[in-house]
Amino acid sequence: MIRVAIDGPAGVGKSSTSKALARHFGFAYLDTGAMYRACAWWCLHQGIDLDGDQVDEQQITEAVAEFFTGDHFDIGVDPDHPSITADGEDISEAIRSSEVSSHVSKVSNVIPVRHVLIAAQRAYIARESAADSFSLGRGIVAEGRDITTVVAPDAEVRVLLTAREEVRQARRTGQAVAGAGVGGEDVAARDRADSKVTSFLTAADGVTTVDNSDMDFQQTMDVLITLVADAV
Ligand code: C5P
Predict the structure, then answer these.
(1) Is 16 annotated as a binding residue?
(2) pLDDT tens digits for range 195-213
């Protein structure tokens, strides 16, 4: 069983590389950002106000607890068909909307919400390591902001995937040179909001930093594949 933990800021290409890495090794794939996005989507869907500086943390916590314990939420960990559902409805695309992106930090910064999600994420990771349960392979790639430090600090492979801010902004907006927020979201603003509760801008002890500012997708993959292959 190999657990691969990948953290990093917005726009660095974590999801596409983590998914491809899981596919390469036949591992399961856990997108923890999608879980936080699903919670934000659920709160918005419930009519909870996420605008303004002060949100109702108790209301958010109760809604997220119901989302999980009431069995409304489900996630698929097959990297070929990653899915997120709410009451059976596929919300994989809805959680990528700019409305969710701009509100997700309000939900992920609520500490009791993090406790619910961290416990669920640890359970998914443990499930993939149980020999007698559903498993796509001998391991899992889990990506997010606090996987290397909080969710799975004992993972066999721990990587901080990062890139210079202007490169990440350009990737997000799809432009060669982009000003913050032009034609897309302001990744720096979301990183600032997220940094209040998670530490993903510098690598923790024992975590390998991979700066892919000057790498293309395949070069990034080659580095990650080598790191995992060395641990297998
Ligand atoms: O990775 P992605 O950009 O989809 O993450 C969406 C949001 O989920 C982040 O901006 C952050 O607020 C939250 N998140 C988190 N902890 C994680 C993964 C994501 O707080 N492990």
Answers:
(1) yes
(2) 999 999 899 999 999 999 9
pLDDT in tens, 84-138: 999 999 999 999 999 999 999 999 999 999 999 999 999 999 988 665 555 656 8
- With a 6 Å cutoff on the Cβ, whether 144 touches ligand 1 is yes
- How many distinct helices (H) and strands (E) make up the chain? 8, 8
In sequence order, which ranges of the chain are alpha helices (DSSP H)? 14-25, 32-45, 57-69, 98-108, 111-129, 165-173, 187-194, 217-231
Ligand 1 binding pocket includes 139 (Cβ within 6 Å): no
Question: pLDDT tens-digit profile of 45-63?
Answer: 999 999 988 999 999 999 9
Determine whether the annotation assigns residue 82 to a binding site.
no
- Ligand 1 center from residue 32 Cα (angstroms): 7
**Ligand 1 near 145 CB (within 6 A):** yes
Which residue has its alpha carbon closest to ligand 1 atom 2? 33
* 123 annotated ligand binder: no
Nearest CA owner, ligand 1 atom 16 = 145
* Cβ contacts of 87-93, under 8 Å, gap ≥ 24: 91/38, 91/41, 92/34
ipTM over 0.90: yes
